[in-house]
Amino acid sequence: MASEETKPKKQRDEECIINGLPGELIERIFLRLPVSTLLRCTGVCEQWHKIIRDPQFVTSHLQDAPQCAVLFFPQESVSGEPHPADAILIDEAWSPSTYAVPVIGPDDFLCGSCNGLLVLYTKSSTLKVANFATGECLHLEKPVKNLRGDHFLFYNFGFHPLTKEYKITHFLGDPVVGSTRSHNNSRFSVIQVYTLGDEKWRDIKTPEALSLNCVKNSGAVNIDGTVCWLIEDMVANWQHAVMTFDLSEESFARIQLPAIVHEDCAGGGPRRYWIREIDGKICIATAQACPSLPRRLVGTLQIWELENKTEQRWSLKYNIQYSPDYIPGPNLVHRNKIILQRRNSNLYSYELLGENFNTKLCKMAKLLDFFPHKPDNMQSYISVKSLVRLDVYKKTAIVRRPKQREGWELKKWEAWEHQLSDYEKLWTCLHEEEHEGIALAERSSISFNGLLPRILDDAIRQDIGMKINQICPSLPDQQPRPLRRLNCVAQKQDRENLSARLENYSSIMKASREASKSIMSMILSAVENQRGASGSNAGISSQNRSEGDDAKA
Questions:
Q1: What span, in angstroms and rounded, lies between the C-alpha atoms of 337 and 359?
Q2: Is 47 helix (H, G, I), strand (E, B) or coil?
Q3: Does one domain contain both 52 and 73?
Q4: Are strands 281-289 and 337-341 parallel, antiparallel or unpaired?
Q5: 139, 126 in Cβ contact below 8 A?
Q6: pLDDT per residue over 316-337, tens digit each?
Q7: Can you spell out the DSSP letters for 325-343?
């Protein structure tokens, strides 16, 4: 923070006025400010820093923080070319963000989001917990090192509102007989739990061996401090049930699904189920899969909501007649609109009109084009930007520093970084070319204007003057280049803008050159005509003088 002596007098006076207000009023003003502004305010003075960093203020600000949708795309290879992991934030106005989230590395996988904190699965021996608004992060040792068959979908992250504790859970596959490192990818009997601030992971036994495939295929959600996921139940009509794990009591419970029998269409494939969270409630989405493409949906999409957890009473919340190709998760509804994916790599939002058997998708709006990322790999979380701090957890023994190069430092991303650098060089060259093109056109304009007085014909001189005004190109304003890394959608748009601007500049300068040639031709023609007229007039004058002399003689 700057010392009082180095601050301008105007700034010191303004701070004195604000700090003269009651502390409660200052806090109420701060509660209305976004996280980015508050982070800058912490460096103004000690009083502001103390208010904003106070845990009670952090909690109060979190309660009223506007929600945003976090759309996460994992790293994947398309046509042999690697594409890094990325995230897009959708704000309250349904506008996608422009910049990349700095705490997300190119090889990270998103495991969970809660109160502005993300848990990211890395390919190293650590998990990363990060606040994507403040940029603060810490690395935690994984519960099992070098675990074969481990998957980011086996991890979950939540916060219990009563204990105020953040916990990470891990579904640990049952060990393979005869192997010390390999674990079963289909069943698990232990949930490993870590509480932020503790020294180690703890193992909690499940009531029975449960299906890891259900977790991988249907997902898991964390609602009010309870982890929920689907398990197999072959006796039930849906052949599934919901298993819950309370993060406070660390106890399990089973919830039966509706007893209704689905009427599947003859042309559809097997029925799929997903567990989702909508408006703070457990929901089950179900639809038939395409027979030839089992990850694509056909027919009707039903979304059932758990109305009463004690009575295990469900109701049909939405019955969407024309299902999307894919549905994201674990959160698919943001501000009363549903987010759905189509096979053309476009993401749309829809208003849901009607309920139960008359639900219709209305007022479709395209959010973004996420090509070349694959649609069935996208995750969506409802989150907030918060001031929640992680430094209070950094002194535990489980916190580690990565021992190996990771992220953008890896050799596999050198070509990607060079490509981004090349695009920046193209922008720089284009801006320089535009400056030079404008300067050249202005010099040509000055030169042509200097020749105009030699044109005696008023009509021709006026016509040439109008064409000179067309020489100077009218180019778009040059906006400063962003200092931060753009996300994948903004990068694609930036490249399209570069291509369009290059084409526009080329056509404008071509028109300017053609106008210059036309002006030069008109000036030369006018001067030549004037010389011809001058010579003709001189001949007539000479003849007239000769005839006059003869008459005198």
A1: 13
A2: helix
A3: no
A4: unpaired
A5: yes
A6: 988 887 667 888 888 888 877 8
A7: SB---B--EETTEEEEE-T
536 residue type, one letter = S
Same domain, 442 and 391: no
Beta partners for residue 127, in sequence order: 121, 140
Instruction: Kindly state the tokens that stand for 136.
Output: 């603060």
**Is 533 among the domain residues?**
no
Task: Count other Cβ atoms within 10 Å, centred on residue 206.
Answer: 17
Q: Are 114 and 502 in contact (CB under 8 A)?
A: no
Statement to judge: residues 191 and 207 lie in one domain:
yes
In a domain, 483, yes or no: yes
Which residues lie below 8 Å from residue 332, measured CB to CB, with a gap of 6+? Answer: 276, 278, 285, 338, 339, 340, 380
* 107, 252, 334 from 124: Cα distances, Å: 10, 31, 33
Residue 5 lies in a domain: no
- Cα-only R_g, the chain: 34
Question: For residue 103, what are its two tokens?
Answer: 């705490």
CA 186 from centroid of its chain's CA atoms:
33
Per the CB < 8 A criterion, the answer to whether 305 and 286 are in contact is no
* CATH code for position 47: 1.20.1280
- The tally of CA atoms less than 13 A away on the side-chain side of residue 507 is 6
- 81 and 26, same structural domain? no
Listed in sequence order, the residues at least 6 apart from 30 whose beta carbon sits closer than 8 Å to its beta carbon are: 38, 41, 48, 51, 52, 57, 61
Question: Which of helix, strand or coil describes residue 318?
Answer: strand
Q: For 180-238, write each residue's pLDDT tens digit.
A: 555 667 899 999 999 999 999 999 999 999 999 999 999 999 999 999 999 999 888 89
3-state secondary structure of 247: coil
Question: In this structure, what token pair is assigned to residue 446?
Answer: 């000055």
Domain identity same for 521 and 480: yes
Residue closest to 397 by CA, chosen among 139, 156, 124? 139
Say yes or no: 303 and 345 in one domain: yes
Q: What is the end-to-end Cα distance of the chain in Å, rounded?
A: 106
Give me the phi and psi of 18, to 5 degrees please.
-65, -45
SS (H, E, C) 476-498: CCCCCCCCCCECHHHHHHHHHHH
Beta bridge partners, 203, equal: 192
Domain that holds residue 323: 65-174+186-403
pTM: 0.84
Query: Per the structure, how many domains does the chain have?
Result: 3
Question: Contact 468/455 with Cβ under 8 angstroms?
Answer: no
Name, in order, each residue with C-beta under 8 angstroms of 415's C-beta and a sequence gap of 6 or more: none
Cis status of the peptide bond prior to 372, with omega within 30 of 0 = yes
498, two tokens: 């570069």
pLDDT of residue 16: 59
Transcribe 211-229 into DSSP letters.
EHHHHHHH-EEEETTEEEE
